[in-house]
Design goal:
Strand order of the largest sheet: 1-2
Strand content: 5-15%
Order of helices and strands: HHEEHHH
Shape: elongated
Number of strands: 2
Oligomer: single chain
Length: about 220
Amino acid sequence: MGHCYRYSMLMIFDMELRMSLIADTRLSRSDQAGMFLTIAIAAVAIVTTVWQAVARLVEVVPGRDVPVLVPFIGEAATLPIGPDGAPIEVDVEQAVVTVPQPAAATQFALVAEPIVVALAVTAGVVLLALLCWNLARGRAFTRANTRIIWWGSAAITAGWVLGSLFQTMSVNGALSAVSEYTYDGITFSISWVPFFAVLVLAVVGAAFQVGERLQRDAEGLV
């Protein structure tokens, strides 16, 4: 009899937990305002991203005197920043190198990088806006939201990998052009910030997937 009582209490607790998932998830007005503000910020971010990509393409498409930001490791230079313009040695972490006429492969990478990065950022921001729109309308643990998060992770991953590849090609091509293939510098450069962003999205996506499954099971109890 005691075992049956404990079992029934556990069943009631489990049903209450599941039923709470299908309760009204509509946000308060302030929370909705926050979601809509995020959507507005996302729109501004998209416009800014496209503008930056177009500005970069205007610089690189002509293929003449193209400025390329190049990272350096263990390099030093002298600058006239001492008393009365005295030269002082400084460490150089990055500098802009002007390439008179990039090679064909370098030119392709210079054009492809801003396009790929802009497409990835735009796709990620649009998906974020869609997620905020669904949340503002009270739709949280749904299959659509789970897919949005996974698609966002895929977009960021693709942009990160391809963008890093084209950036490396651009940097190595620029160094080869200005040094006439005599400088051994950066062979591959990558930023790990998008990697951690993908990890965070993966965790959020897994949480939404679990929530979606629990909510689907709870709906079956009603």
